[in-house]
């Protein structure tokens, strides 16, 4: 059975590019446009991994990661931050919130897929 990955990004084109890479590697994809939208979709469905941007309206990526880690069903779900941010304090904040990896945009699909393969839940 295919693993399900949630992509959280306010850019529809970025969700599409990431989705194409993930679907091409055999993953199922659920898309959300920001942290609040994503939380609404975490309704008990099994998510094996989350790929999230940091800079989004309504709820940013770090607030979203913190919120996910408060949910019993998802607190162990690995989260990869996919962002243009390169500041160490942002990386530290994301890691402290519970993010497991950091991939910078523009990303190379093989790099993202390698991180996904390493972290995706069984």
Automatic annotation (TrEMBL):
Q: Is the keyword Phosphoprotein assigned to this protein?
A: yes
Residue runs in coiled coils? none
What biological processes does GO assign it? phosphorelay signal transduction system
Q: Do you know which InterPro entries this protein is assigned to?
A: Bact_response_regulator, CheY-like_superfamily, Sig_transdc_resp-reg_receiver
Q: Which UniProt keywords apply?
A: Phosphoprotein
4-aspartylphosphate modification sites are 53
| PROSITE patterns assigned | RESPONSE_REGULATORY (PS50110)
Organism superkingdom: Bacteria
Domain named Response regulatory is located at 4-120
What is the protein name stated in its UniProt record?
A: Response regulator receiver protein
